[in-house]
């Protein structure tokens, strides 16, 4: 399922629940204070609830397990909570669940007592309404920007990378154009990784482009990073014999992953190395790789061993391969950033 499509459907459901919660809140005030409840208000609540349910079911025609898929989305937040997911988002989801359960219990007690609620259930009812309203009204105002914005930005980043590549082919390959290709592709990779594990902190992943030094083959160079932070500037030079995993990935062409990486001088605890074979070089020859690290241990421990993730990253990896081919074709190495 497309990311923007999923987020839109989740948003529709949230809007439906929001309207239902707001109307319920205005109905709760006279109920709590023992005032007479208008039949029109109950009728409006029923109509809005039916609309919310219809919208949820109607907008998921290809999924026989509609409710299951929605619950799975919330469960994933909990699954990735300890690997970088925002605690605020997970807390809001938990409040919504608690509020929904409280509303169901209060409604059951309300109809069982013929329109009356005992004092404890009035407290439960008001607390449940507040929980649901927090998720529907307050949380969207303070949460990080939604994933659909990142989805659109990734499209623009890839388009910008391809435009710069076309300018290099049709005109002159310049250092700035090649750098733009690489930075856009690396930024898009970082964005997609964060979406994959719901990492709304956006400060855990690092995405680096590493190549063999054209002048000294026993040395590796990190020529670009998705986010340049203090102490991790480019270019950074490494002796190949001190980076055994990277050297093995380059020699074998196999992807390397270590979710429990540990070195005293490093602040990250996960490493994923992806070799970049280029179509203009001999088969099974790799001179470059994308090195992904994270401050979260086991941050990319996915059920399918990251196979689907690697397929989704392939357009950005291809853009990096094109950029490096241009570097070699025009011999642009003396202007490393």
The domain tally reads 2
**Count of distinct strands:** 6
Order of helices and strands: HHHHHHHEEEHEEEH
What is the radius of gyration? 26 Å
Descriptive report:
This protein has helices spanning 3-32, 39-58, 66-79, 87-112, 119-142, 147-170, 175-196, 244-252, 307-330; strands at 205-212, 219-225, 236-239, 256-258, 270-277, 286-294. 29% of the residues are buried. The chain folds into 2 domains: 3-142, no CATH class; 147-330, GAF domain (Beta-Lactamase). Helix 1 packs antiparallel against helix 5. It is elongated. It contains 9 helices and 6 strands. The protein is α+β, with helices and mostly antiparallel strands and 337 residues long. The protein has a 6-stranded antiparallel β-sheet with strand order 3-2-1-6-5-4, sandwiched between helices. Helix content is 57%, strand content 12%.
Give a summary of the structure in a few sentences.
The protein has 337 residues and is of the alpha+beta class.
